[in-house]
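User: Fold this; tokens only.

Assistant: Input:
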Amino acid sequence: MNPNRSMSLDRRLAAGFLVRLCRLLTGIRARWLAPLPEAQVRIYYANHSSHLDGMVVWASLPPRLRTQVRPVAAADYWLTTGLRRYIARRVFNAVLIARRTAGQEAGAPNNALTLMSEPLEQGQSLILFPEGTRGSGEAIADFKSGIWHLARMNPQAELVPVYLENLNRVLPKGSRLVVPILCSAVFGAPVEPLGENEDKQAFLSRLKDALEALKP
């Protein structure tokens, strides 16, 4: 079955345009270090240094998988303009998460895990960035606990590290100017699933180590 049949005409055209634009701006080269299964629920987790990161990972996937993989993104960024809303909702079918505000208590209810778990339970995959915020691109920050909770709630989902190189130089933090530079996305082999009695910090460190091991 052709996966594009499940997409409307405008979404197919917009998706094709964004994939071509992404490749033009970044010259992205995707490299897979393990065979890609036809049907497997996955959490693709990557380092985060640019607003283009989610688009690059999504565009690097084979066309047959894109309709089943949803980027996780910050609602406060992607809902600010009509164009961003269209791209996030209509093209990427992104899972939009409201980030905590400065005055929100750390223990206040947050439905992010529920929003991310629903697609996984329906057989879809996710793209997420466990550092939580954009970094400099030079070093990978410690992971937030969200991916640990998500792995506990969704043991059927494989965890696949994706190392992105040079994205911080294409769209530097604080800049609106896109600089065409060759980038790469290295997709690693799935990591071992969360152990029954595995400590949270040990799990987060193990996932981070697997991502850092993909650096060129």
